[in-house]
Amino acid sequence: MARIGILTGGGDCPGLNAVIRGVVRKGIEDGDHEFVGLSHGWAGVLEGQGRPLGREETAGLLPRGGTILGTSRTNPYRDGGDGTALVSAAMERLGLDGLIAIGGEDTLGVASRLAADDVPVIGVPKTIDNDLAGTDYTFGFDTAVQIASDAIDRLHTTAESHDRVIVVEVMGRHAGWIACSAGMAGGAHAILVPEKPFDMGALCDVIRARHDRGRRYSIIVASEGAVPAGGGLTAREDDLDEFGHPRLGGIGAWLEREIEEETGYETRMVVLGHVQRGGTPTAYDRILATRYGVGAIDAWDRGERGVMVALHGTQIVTVPLSEALAAPKLLDPQLYDAAEVFFG
Ligand code: F6P
To answer: How far apart are CA 30 and CA 124, in angstroms?
Structure first.
């Protein structure tokens, strides 16, 4: 039997609660483990803020969006601090044998550093952006794609009624997974992703060619991290989080202005923003999140530490945290090539 702390860090994501439920239910049934829910990511660990999590506390969580534990972008290693000593001391105060950290590159980056210092930790990959290496999919991505493609469907009819260009800005800091998938599902006429700096002239040519064919409206989907070739934009570099990431946003507004100026066609932009992270997870994400929760306890019971649960094909496996964090998983060029067939 072990006493394990669970935390959720970074941006919230549909399916976090389903992971928590999966961990606790599997842990109670199989190993008779005890669980402590830590508040607001690494902040709750450092402050020793935890509460018991059992069957009762996790009942009804499967379809619930957000995270019952709260989240933050707190970094225990901020400003060169000795994060390992801080976390270890907090774990001792809370009587914890180990941690299950549910998060993306930053939260799991901390977990990886802790693991390198022999702190017993297991990671669960979370991000709507789907840009974590080591796994085929992160939970939350499917929900974000569904929300964004529903929105794109709706934008088609209003764009068409008004003969407008509509730019849809979606999340995706380093990688264009959401833009490409939602754009493909929603029949976008061009998709802009961080991996492929775009040519403004070529984009306007695509829009003009549509108008010339009598298709007098266009839907352009852009990742928040998309950039024009040769620069010219835009990110809000003034506002850094504790992991040093700037707050993105701005590509939609920039494109709205530039497209209208260059083509003369009336243009509007929509930033889907945090709508993509809110609300109930899709059935796919509920299942994946549950399997990750169960898989994290299976890994713990096998004695694995310093690993992340992952999906390879249809199987839940584990990979070393260090491997998963080495570099972001960028958009599969084959997926973009297939989407590109339908541009214009
Ligand atoms: O979770 C990753 C992400 O969705 C990025 O795509 C986005 O840049 C970021 O979160 C924004 O998060 P917040 O505004 O909550 O800091």
So the answer is: 19
172 Cβ closer than 6 Å to some ligand 1 atom? yes
Number of H helices, E strands in the chain: 11, 13
Q: Which atom of ligand 1 is the closest one to the Cα of 171?
A: 6
CATH architecture of the domain with range 3-140+281-324: 3-Layer(aba) Sandwich (3.40)
To test ligand 1's pocket by mutation, which of 73, 139, 171, 248 has the most ligand atoms within 8 angstroms of CB? Answer: 171
How much distance in Å is there from the Cα of 134 to the middle of ligand 1? 20
Check if 171 has its Cβ closer than 6 Å to any atom of ligand 1.
Answer: yes
pLDDT single digits (tens) 222-257:
999 999 998 766 555 567 788 877 777 689 999 999
Phi, psi values for residue 315, rounded to 5°: -105, 140
In angstroms, the CA 242 to CA 3 distance is: 29
**CA proximity to 126, closest of 146, 151, 150, 109:** 109
Picking from 202, 32, 22, the residue whose alpha carbon sits closest to that of residue 100 is: 22
Residue 239 tokens, joined: 């506002």
What is the three-class DSSP state of 38? strand
Selecting from 3.20.20.100, 3.40.50.720, 3.40.50.460, 3.90.950.10, what CATH number does the domain 142-278 have? Answer: 3.40.50.460
Q: Is the Cβ–Cβ distance between 172 and 178 less than 8 Å?
A: yes
At which residue do the structure tokens 């180990």 appear? 98
Query: Which residue, chain included where needed, has tokens 């794609």?
Result: 145
Residue 316: how many other CB atoms lie within 10 Å: 17
Domains of the chain, by residue range, sit at 3-140+281-324, 142-278
- Collapsing DSSP to helix, strand or coil, 248 comes out as coil
Distance, CA of 174 to CA of 130 (rounded, Å): 10
List, for residues 159-192, the tens digit of each pLDDT value.
Answer: 999 999 999 999 999 999 999 999 999 999 999 9
Residue nearest to atom 11 of ligand 1 (CA): 11
**Which residue type occupies 1?**
M
Confidence (pTM) = 0.95
How much is the mean pLDDT over the chain?
95
Q: d(Cα 137, Cα 285) in Å, to the nearest integer?
A: 10
